[in-house]
Design a protein that fits this description.
208 residues; 2 domains; disordered C terminus; two-stranded antiparallel ribbon; 8 helices
């Protein structure tokens, strides 16, 4: 218990909001993995890690990738070990809001990526699925500038190999009838390539 308390105190002192949540994700994931439950990071943090971005919305969103913990298990980890305040789906640990979701909708689970933190391994939703969703949201049913910016950042970091984007999978997703944004992908990737050629390189905040 002492080591967990030390980890919580260490995480609470991290100034960068994205890094603080990222490290907390590692700790929470480790404690659940010990009990046979694999968590996956969704939402804002997944985007931030792939896009090398910083968020002003510091909420850790987690889903159950494999295994479904019993209610007592959730309480043992979140309240007993992490001293969190809340119940079942909504918690606060060291000032960090943590939200649990159900089973995530993942078309390509084999493309979920593991990132290593000081407190354990964090599993993220596939970058290809996040990117395809932002490309679709950027144009349908009407143009959305924020979603376009997010898609562009993911494409830039994929082109610069901050992570290994599977371009064939991304293309197949964008051409799928549920998305139908293959042309938009081609245009946005070409524009992102110009940005990469102009800027050169971007800092990579975390390693895979």
């Amino acid at each position: 218990m002492g080591r967990i308390d030390d980890s919580i105190q260490h995480i609470a002192l991290i100034e960068d909001g994205t890094e603080r949540i990222f490290q907390m994700a590692g700790l929470v994931s480790t404690l659940f993995k010990i009990r046979g439950v694999v968590l996956i990071v969704t939402g804002q943090l997944a985007f931030d890690i792939y896009a090398n971005a910083t968020s002003n919305r510091p909420t850790l969103e987690l889903a159950f990738f494999s295994g479904q913990p019993a209610p007592r298990t959730v309480l043992d980890v979140m309240r007993g070990q992490l001293h969190g305040q809340g119940s079942m789906g909504e918690w606060q640990v060291a000032g960090i809001p943590i939200r649990f979701q159900g089973q995530p909708s993942v078309t390509h689970p084999e493309l979920c990526r593991d990132f290593t933190t000081e407190h354990g391994v964090v599993k993220l939703l596939p970058a290809e699925e996040i990117t395809a969703e932002y490309i679709l949201s950027s144009v349908y049913p009407e143009a959305d500038e924020e979603c376009q910016t997010r898609a562009r950042l993911l494409l830039i970091n994929g082109l610069m190999e901050a992570f290994q984007m599977d371009w064939a999978v991304l293309q197949n997703l964008c051409h799928h009838p549920d998305y139908r944004v293959g042309e938009e992908l081609a245009k946005m990737r070409a524009a992102a390539k110009k940005d990469v050629d102009t800027v050169g390189s971007l800092p990579n905040q975390v390693g895979q």
